[in-house]
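Form 7-S
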Amino acid sequence: MFSFLSGLYFRGKLAYAHAFGRSVGGVPGALIITTDRGLVPTDTVVTRDDLLAFACVDIAAGDERYTKPLRRDIDALDRSLGPDGCVILLGSIATGKYVDMLLETFGTRLVFPSDFVGRGDMSRGGLLLRCVSEERELAYEPVVGAVRHGKRPPKLKPLR
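Output:
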């Protein structure tokens, strides 16, 4: 459902996570942040009613229906990964709506693809799909101390 509704960006994230994600300590190699259920595996079935429930939660306002399940799952993920486990975030780091909660727990263990800086959603999706096609994992850097709003990189070259 998310792949259909959000288009290139989510398809890119999903393909990349499946290609390069690694299960650790019983935790799936990829999880999705939801508005009212915390973190869910990528194979979770989402119905129309689920989408309607998701739409009723304002994550930007810090609604407890969003923060409480997400904090619960972040804590469980931290326990499963242990003190040396890192989390690769394939979402935007430009706002704090989920980054702040992840940073509270993971600190420097929260990393993201450095090639994301300055790219919009569609460009990030296209980049991730290209990496999957090329079997090339991106370089990561900690979110802590990273440039969160950077200069826009050159457009991706069209595929032939």
